[in-house]
Amino acid sequence: MDEDLAISVKHLSKSFKLPHEKKSSLKEHVLNFRKQTFEEFKVLKDINFEIKKGEFFGIVGRNGSGKSTMLKILGGIYQPNKGEVKVSGTLTPFIELGIGFNPELTGRENVFLNGAILGLTRKEVTRKYDEIVEFAELDRFMDQKLKNYSSGMQVRLAFAIAIQAHNNVLLIDEVLAVGDSNFQRKCFKVFREIKESGKTVVFVTHDMGAIQEYCDRAMMIQDGEIVAIGSPRKIALRYEAANSSVGASVVGEVIPRPADPALKLTNVQVSAPDKKTKHFSLDDDIVVDVSFEVRREAPAQINLFFMRTDGVQSAGINTTNDLKKFAPKKGKHTIQCCLRAGQLVKGEYNVNVAAYTTDEVPDLIDIMDENYGTKTPLISVIERSAYQDGEFYIQGKWSV
Amino acid sequence: MKISNILRPSNRSLIRELVASDFKLRYQNSVLGYVWSLLRPLLLFGTLYVVFVYVFKINKDNTIPNFPSYLLLGVIVWTFFTEATMSGLNAITGRSDLVKKVSIPKYTMVVSTTVSAFVNFTLNLLVLAIFIVVGRVDIRASALLFPFLVVELLMFSMGLSFLLSALFVKFRYMSYIWEVTLQMLFYATPILYLMQMVPHNLAKIMSLNPLAQIIQDMRAVLITPETLTTKEVFASQVGRIVPALIVVVVLVFSVWYFKRSASSFAEDL
Fold first, then answer.
1. Which residues from A are below 8 Å from B14, CB to CB?
2. For the packed helices B238-262 and B210-222, what is the interaxial angle rounded to 10 degrees?
3. Do A113 and B21 touch (CB under 8 A)?
4. Structure pTM?
5. Residue ranges of domains in chain B
6. CA-CA distance, A117 to A97, in Å (whole number)?
7. pLDDT tens across A292-342, in order?
8. Rounded CA gap, B252 and A8, in Å?
């Protein structure tokens, strides 16, 4: 394994044998000479990936996709059937908080027990005890039995102990979704510190916001296979797409568009007022017509985005600001967006469009994008501004 | 499972915490607390003493001097053996939460159950010490051999615990089998009767049981030389070597089997 790798997984396969009938009694063992028949259930199929030291690596996937099994194998709880998993250094699995917590013991006793289970010595727990109590904000309750704690208090205590484990690889399984908002903020702060201290973190979650905020890279698993691995944004988009079309299976690199969306995008067309070409100068307006058909009325936001040909999304503009609470009636519509080409840097762009729900966490309704197998117009901005350069254009004024 | 691993501070701490929490849980809700662990063998001892001395008149010609201490020692060892192996059997299955959710060295779970039982055993030995003092038992130099026999007892119980805990994960009927085995062992071991009462041929077979050898040797070195030890039954050292060999074989095999099965505990549970 390379020096700079924290985790290396090669050709990992895992299957569980589910016996057709569970045989547990002596009589059954003795009387049943026939070989037990099993159903082999493949949970992970030939998984390959590497995680670098200091990387914050996200794993996403729907329930039953195999991500928990993956985590348990990384954590050394399950053994792989095939392939190899190498972890450099020691590893703390946060697969569940408060492992071994006993309701009949006091908070203090549980700290020592849980600490030991996480691999801390008694000395270390004693030294960090005050810090743990302070972090958990449970000063007055430490001599009470755990059964008298609220579930939030238990989680706080468990989390406070867990972050004291001093291993250099951490596996975190959706522990962020606990506690009140105040405590959650603290957790986020800790995760940021962990990231900054150069530890390797493997983070399993459904929260695409967290994935994009913390992860350097992410991976999506579906039906025991890696569907995609790459930038958090790409994975988040992919995950949203896969989730909004339940039952869809991903074929190759093309993600299927959501089936039967409430709002079906039908066409995106780019025109320039006085030109036939798709080449734009800095001062030209780009006019984009988006056609769609509303099948079920619901508030929606339409998002126009300019994707560079190398797959990076450069810019986007949505309807929220101009159209406010946009909830088109049933039927066919065409809306138009007009923008100055000079805001884009010289280069080629795909003009993509997507419709999202207006929920707090927007869900994808429909999308037109090359990744989803739909051709979208390609435009190019042909002039380079003489007095600006860089990734994007900024407005400003010089003075003497 | 290397020896160096057992000595690692984090693993020692883990065993210690497991034992400590086990004790707190066991006694916290009873008024008598720790006294219970002393009372149990004492009550068993009292019952056996009354039944076998006054009803069956087992030691009426006083073959065995200091019979109360002699009987109590047997009961204490037996209590330890039952407790250690029964909790050992449950060591993995009873803590499936630990096995399934965290990767801790599994042997610590088994070792901690034996250590728990051993703490009780030492408390009980203190009671025995009182009996020995009150009964004016003659302490001889041979008492120095006692710790070695304790080690043999520990090795035997821990070995069986490793084997039983691993088997119990796969075969749930092991608990019934072991309960019956314990019952048979209780009568096959000279705890409440004297080895002298057993016909010679049968005594030879019975003496090969490591538990019988350990109890008889403990009695011989600590209480009275009148004990019929395995060595005397065979009239040679063979009597000592064979049971000791059984203990070693059981321990080595059990540890090997445990190590082999440990990696799949999480899936089998």
1. 116-117, 119
2. 130
3. yes
4. 0.72
5. 3-268
6. 11
7. 999 988 888 898 888 877 667 778 888 888 887 888 888 899 999 988 887
8. 35
